[in-house]
Amino acid sequence: MTEILNQMAANPFWFHECFLMSMPLGKKVVNLRELLDNLREVDESVLFYHLIQSRLLLDQPAAEYPNDFALWAAHALQDTRLAEKLSSFDPFEYQTLGEVRQAVVDILEEYLWDLPFVPWARPGFEFHFCQASVVVMHSLISAHNLKEFCSALTRVGLDSIYYHFFEARWRLGELKSDDFSFWIETNFDLPTLVEDIRSIDVYFYTLKEVRASLVGLIHQHLGELCDHPE
Amino acid sequence: MITLNDYTPIVGEEVVSQLYRLAERLKGRRFVHINSTAVGGGVAEMLARAIPLLNQLGLETTWEVIMGDPFFFEVTKAFHNGLQGFRVQLTPSMLEHYRQVNLENAKRFAWEADVVMVHDPQPASLIEVLRPQARRWVWRCHVDVSRPHLPVWRFLRKIVRQYDASVFSMPQFAQNLPHPQYLIHPSIDPLSEKNRELTEKEIQTVLYRLGIEKDKPLILQISRFDSFKNPVGVIQAFRLVRRHTPCKLVLAGGEATDDPEGPAILAQVQEAAHGDPDIQVLLLPPDAHHEVNALQRAADLIVQKSTREGFGLTVTEAMWKGKPVIGGAVGGIVLQLRDYHTGFLVQSPEGCAFRIRYLLHRPQLAHRMGQMAREFVRLHFLITRHLRDYLTLLILQANPDRRLVEF
What we know:
The complex is a heterodimer.
Chain A: H1 2-6, E1 13-29, H2 32-39, H3 44-57, H4 68-75, H5 80-88, H6 97-113, E2 127-143, H7 146-155, H8 158-171, H9 179-187, H10 191-198, H11 207-222
Antiparallel strand pairs in A: 1-2
Helix pairs in contact in A: 2-6, 3-8, 4-5, 8-11, 9-10
Chain B: H1 8-11, H2 13-24, E1 30-35, H3 42-56, E2 60-65, H4 70-83, H5 92-108, E3 113-119, H6 127-130, E4 134-140, H7 150-160, E5 165-168, E6 181-183, H8 200-210, E7 218-222, H9 231-242, E8 248-253, H10 262-273, E9 279-283, H11 289-298, E10 301-304, H12 313-320, E11 325-328, H13 333-336, E12 343-346, H14 349-360, H15 363-380, H16 383-398, E13 404-406
């Protein structure tokens, strides 16, 4: 154990800072049929925004549903059954955003198939498509070994946690992976820690909770390497 | 003078140091803001706080205010009402006067800029004359344009299309435009006179000066006297509450120099409140920030029963003071208030009355909601987040063809 704690990584981990800017497209849909038709065609960045980015951009306390589609079904269509279906769907179970798109389309298509009518949004509650522009900046924080890594995790901003843990999945084209577990996998022989990090059920976590879970897993596998985050 | 480092105890060291690092990429950039009033209203307040901080960050930031005669502000108020959905009439002479006043203002402006941000419709047509004076033109719309009156939007759209980007406060305000549209939520400054912590003595002094005796639970709405803020609806709600629970209502509002309708609405409100000793209507000067702060801190519940709302910074201010807020379910209020967590959204005077009674009878829940509201504002609606968005926007505007900028 001591050996791995002192082992220097072949490549240090450089933390990045990440600034998201929401970009509404000025395009809206008023009913479930229109949402389905548009989801078949919108850019993958739009899908990523509504499933992952928007929730992280504005961390609402106690949001009932984990993505914009489920929230819209509940609040605008007032269809709790559909909201439940859309919230139990987990985008991180898929390898690519193409597969995620197909899964959402399948849910909506099957749901509409059995309905004798098309659910409409109340006036003023249309669904507005957005995507995000991103500015990424090298931070001054790096880690050369696991102790430094653990300590850095508690110091970096939540935007860094977002960038390396969520944005990475899209960047790497692999929704099950992230920068943190990838770095540990390629620099240290710790397959169970890697697996545990990749098994975090992140879909319901705020960024603060994700940070606490990551530090908790490192402590569990390697001992108390650093302070717990606030 | 307030410096950026003064915000560290509130938002954390990492948030402030991040601003410095982002701004390093923008050192010396010339950033011009233009609006139509130096005092009164959320835009002027936000600019007054943000401009010095942007300069501290190393950007050469200036703020210009256009001037106009009363007819010009009648025209732009018609634009404002039309953008928020009222069926207003625009005549060719009104449109001509709008352009003429902007043209006259343009003659005074000798600045050159990397990015100019034009706030709201009043100065929007400056671009038609001054285009060569800035590399990038950004139109910042602060009003609720979710359902504009078409003739008004059709006229303004021709102007707005000439911009390189526009910024809205909510996704539902975005329009079909040929340039990138961004979302920036407004913000409040926790260190301003309107939001800084006050001692109990300071609060009591203001209440005494304004003649408010706090012998019953105090319900407050702070807003300009504007029909979209629905002050008469608040009086209706209050009277429904008082049938069951003793309480007092204070309606306090400032004046903005670009709002010619204020006196007429104020007269309506005074008439509705006439003869009721439990309702106080206070017309405050536009710089009565200290008084607003004290009133918000003294209130038991705060109401913002708007029927249209760009964002609703008075809601944000109240939340920052740890107060439970009951707001109309429109515009940015929807984003800020979440039922049973950070406040209550209502659709009618009856709904407003019901939620007021609910919270007056559950003070512990009201306190908990207020604490949650304060934390939500700390994370998302303080000026430091707004500065970060400005800096990010400027970086994106310097790389207009890219949605991902890395350095």
